[in-house]
Amino acid sequence: MDWNKTLNSIFFTKPEDWIVQLGVAVDFPKVRKRMFDNDVHDFVPTKTFFADFGFFGYCAEIDLSNIKKYLIFKGDISADEFGPSDFSVVVWLKVIHIKKFKD
């Protein structure tokens, strides 16, 4: 049995399978305005990694240095700043509703 085929049949393994959108800004009101900016994915790619079978399955990983590049691109911070001390990232996840069946 192919290990990757088995994992793919059990878990959502690609970010686009379970992440709808990212919002990134220095404050929450700006995040809400930017939730549907498609350019965020050019700067802030989301990677996944397999954590374990018991609790987590696949987890998402977002590189903080890429968030800094995105905030510079959007004009929220200047390039000479070390980095924002505060910023917000909102991740919208896809949800699957499973109905419980009566026995």
Which descriptors would you attach to this protein?
103 residues, alpha+beta, two-stranded antiparallel ribbon, 5 helices, 4 strands
- In helices, the fraction of residues equals 25-40%
Secondary-structure element string: HHEHHEEHE
As laid out across the biggest beta sheet, the strand order is 1-4
Largest beta-sheet characterization: 2 strands, antiparallel
Number of helices: 5
> In one word, what is the shape?
elongated
Q: Could you give the count of β-strands? A: 4
Mean pLDDT: 78
Strand composition percent: 25-35%
Number of domains: 1
Low-confidence stretches: none
Describe this protein's structure:
It is a single chain. The protein has one domain. The two termini are 33 Å apart. It contains five helices and four strands, in the order ααβααββαβ. The strands form two sheets. It has a two-stranded antiparallel sheet with strand order 1-4. It is an alpha+beta fold and 103 residues long.
Secondary structure blueprint with pairings:
Layout lengths: L2 H8 L4 H4 E7 L2 H7 L5 H4 L2 E7 L4 E6 L1 H10 L14 E6 L10
Antiparallel strand pairs: 1-4, 2-3
Short description, anyone?
The chain has 103 residues and is α+β, with helices and mostly antiparallel strands. The chain contains five helices and four strands, in the order H-H-E-H-H-E-E-H-E.
